[in-house]
Amino acid sequence: MKAPGTTTRLSVQKTYKLYVGGKFPRSESGRVYEVTDSRGAKGSGGGQDGGAWLANAPLASRKDARDAVVAARKAVAGWSGATAYNRGQVLYRVAEMLEGRREQFAREVADAEGLSKAKSAAVVDAAVDRWVWYAGWTDKIAQVVGGANPVAGPYFNLSTPEPTGVVAVLAPQDSSFLGLVSVLAPVIATGNTAVVVAAERAPLPALSLGEVLATSDVPGGVVNLLSGRTAEIATPLAAHQDVNGIDLTGAGPELAAELEAAAADNLKRVRRPALGEDWTADPGTSRLTAWLETKTVWHPIGV
Amino acid sequence: MSSEVVPPSTLLPDVSSSPRALRSYLHGLPGVDAVGLEARAAALGTRSIKTTAKAYAIDLAISMIDLTTLEGADTAGKVRALCAKGVRPDPADRSVPPVAAICVYGDMVAVAKEAVAAAGGTDVHVAAVATAFPSGRAARSVKLADTAEAVAAGADEIDMVIDRGAFLSGRYLDVFEEIQAVKAACTREDGSRAHLKVIFENGELSTYDNIRRCSWLAMLAGADFIKTSTGKVGVNATPANTLVMLEAVRDFRRATGVQIGVKPAGGIRTAKDAVKYLVMVNETLGDDWLSPEWFRFGASSLLNDLLMQRQKLSTGRYSGPDYVTVD
């Protein structure tokens, strides 16, 4: 028995929500699914019964995907039109916000991936560092992949990289935070806008990332985060006529083949999944250049 | 048209005999329960219309559109492009019906008539806004000349604005007589008459009671259609203010046997919105009004959204703005 006058404090549970167009809506369908800790992932048949319950996450529907694409399309003009320097500053600001929330993300990553406290902290640090690394690339990628081409005539011939547009990203299933940052940051660093499908079993770090993005000068709609069944959300995204590229990292081989076929209809750029990608390794620039189109201009040299 | 056989005012007490008679008639109309009205309009907006019903609704909505361009920057080229689009909204799909009418300023009527004919749109009407649209602030002689010129240029339909100043200051008979005068100006040389739509500008009438009074006033004066707004002010067609007008039209036919059309305009941009209005028409008025002859949408960007939804239904893939025209 407690002494009279003292009460036990009830902790406040967080409602995880989608992040679409700079707002935090629930799924249009009203559905949620149970997210369990990492022991659930190893349970028989991948059911919901193996691990301890962590939270209910929204189970996004194809209509949420459609709304996210509309929001992403609206944001393209502003984000791709911003100067590369400005985009870099905004992304660096995201890293600043992440830094202040390292403990929260470390806890969520530890729950999701079954890592020790120290290991999950190291993963979050690596993710923040990766974000800063990509922030630095925004105003340098044009020098690396663009340039002045030598031509046999009295012309300047200049190639510049331009963003592809709206990119759907299937976040990796095995790395809920570092993997997510590694696939998302290059997409927006190059001036694209993204519709991200978070890891199906471990969407909580991704949904929390939405809260960071919302408070760090990233315009609404530049990043849209959905949680739910990857196959269910990815199918309409791959077929969507207003999506310009799709990153299939989080899709299994069978699903990836199906999605690639659907994506062919409007000639989307497709990035195929690589098996067993090491998220701690140096990522190189391939994820940046995957979402860039080269524009080449001929200009007469004045005489 | 059969609805014009009996002049409506002969079936009701002679309300237009004096300002006082008209005023007491309009103020004798029952008041609108605003809360109930808005709840009813919101409830009707929650119906789920799917698959074949949705396909039917989308095609019906396309055929009801008055495709509109009313900008100071309108050019003959823009009007021609709009006419071509109205006659064949989706060039890649011939099963898409044409729109009901092209709505332009009076000076563009001749251009629109020619462009519609050139595009082969035999059923597509040309509507002209007249009477000093959108404010309606001009002398009556100017308004009548404006109307007569548009009719002479070949307009099939005239969208007039009422004098809101007169209405709000209680000079109902002035408004009544002006509608009658404009209707007279709609008569062509051969004795036929352009269809008259009367625009209230609901956003400026302030109350639902005013909208109901204005509906009855316009119907008694001989309007063929009543239209919510010009699209030029902050508040345009809303489900609730359109519902007031639908109810007025329903009650008017019950009292006089004369059927009047309704046209919500402004602010209807998505297929979902359009379907909500169709549900409201069906539930309030029934099948009789579910045709372009009796119900119209005044819109421009709505058409693109309807076309995108139609493409989604036929292909199963979400479409995008790259696959419809920029206008």
UniProtKB/TrEMBL annotation, chain A:
Record keywords, A-Z: Oxidoreductase
One Pfam family hit: Aldedh
Taxonomy, superkingdom: Bacteria
Record's keyword annotation contains Iron-sulfur: no
GO MF entries: oxidoreductase activity
Entries under SUPFAM superfamilies matching the protein: ALDH-like (SSF53720)
Name of the molecule in the record: Aldehyde dehydrogenase family protein
Residues annotated as domain Aldehyde dehydrogenase: 53-270
InterPro entries according to UniProt: Ald_DH/histidinol_DH, Ald_DH_N, Aldehyde_DH_dom
UniProtKB/TrEMBL annotation, chain B:
Pfam families noted in UniProt: DeoC (PF01791)
BP GO annotations: carbohydrate catabolic process; deoxyribonucleotide catabolic process
Keyword Lyase: yes
Keyword Transferase: no
Any one GO cellular component localisation term in the record: cytoplasm
EC main group: lyase
Keywords: Lyase, Schiff base
Domain of life: Bacteria
Stored InterPro entries: Aldolase_TIM, DeoC, DeoC/FbaB/LacD_aldolase
Pathway: Carbohydrate degradation; 2-deoxy-D-ribose 1-phosphate degradation; D-glyceraldehyde 3-phosphate and acetaldehyde from 2-deoxy-alpha-D-ribose 1-phosphate: step 2/2
Enzyme Commission numbers on file: 4.1.2.4
Reaction equation(s) it catalyzes: 2-deoxy-D-ribose 5-phosphate = D-glyceraldehyde 3-phosphate + acetaldehyde
GO molecular function, one term: deoxyribose-phosphate aldolase activity
Family according to the record: Belongs to the DeoC/FbaB aldolase family. DeoC type 2 subfamily.
Identification of the protein by name: Deoxyribose-phosphate aldolase
Organism of origin: Actinacidiphila yanglinensis
